[in-house]
Amino acid sequence: MQVHELNLKHPCWIRGGIIPYLNTPRGYLYGLGIDADYGTLIDFGGHRENFDYDILDTARRELSEESFDVFGKPSREELLNLPVLYNRTDMEIFWPIQGNAEHLQHNFRTLVSQAHPDDVENMDLVWLTPEELLKTSPNNMYPRLWNLLFRS
């Protein structure tokens, strides 16, 4: 399913996120954050706020806040035609990006080191292969994300 096929304004949506990914010569790499409070893997996402136009705006806002825009800023139009996983309350968009995983990780770490500690939600960026992602224990990932990825 693609993002544009969902009713993005529906009040059922509580949480929206984006997982950037790279298509490299070695295969796909999925970018996830390391949560600053719990040390677990997490997407670039969060809870819908009253001022968000819809759940897509929530996902875009959270990506920007949590990634310091290291991946760039996707437009609404760009995201509407991308694949999405969802359940009754949460949605996760898979966003193909360009770049080098090591450079993006280095740039992210630099931005984190320069940020005020209160502004850091993800303390690091990691890249996982599909095999590594599938082997992730529920104890090592934000529970709502794990449930969405592995139980939807």
Word description of this protein:
The chain has 152 residues and is of the alpha+beta class. It has a single domain (3-151), classed as Alpha-Beta Complex (Nucleoside Triphosphate Pyrophosphohydrolase), CATH 3.90.79.10. It has 5 helices and 7 strands, in the order E-E-E-E-H-H-E-E-H-E-H-H. Strands 1, 2, 3, 4, 5, 6 and 7 form a 7-stranded mixed sheet that branches. A hairpin with a 5-residue loop joins strand 2 and strand 3 (41-42). The chain starts with 14 loop residues before the first strand and ends with a helix.
Relevant terms:
152 residues; alpha+beta; Nucleoside Triphosphate Pyrophosphohydrolase; 7 strands; 30% helix; 28% strand; globular
In short:
With 152 residues, the chain is an alpha+beta fold. It contains 5 helices and 7 strands.
Shape: globular
Largest sheet: 7 strands, mixed
Average of pLDDT: 97
Which structural class best describes the helix and strand composition?
alpha+beta
User: Nearest-angstrom radius of gyration?
Assistant: 15 Å
What is the CATH C level class, in words?
Answer: Alpha Beta
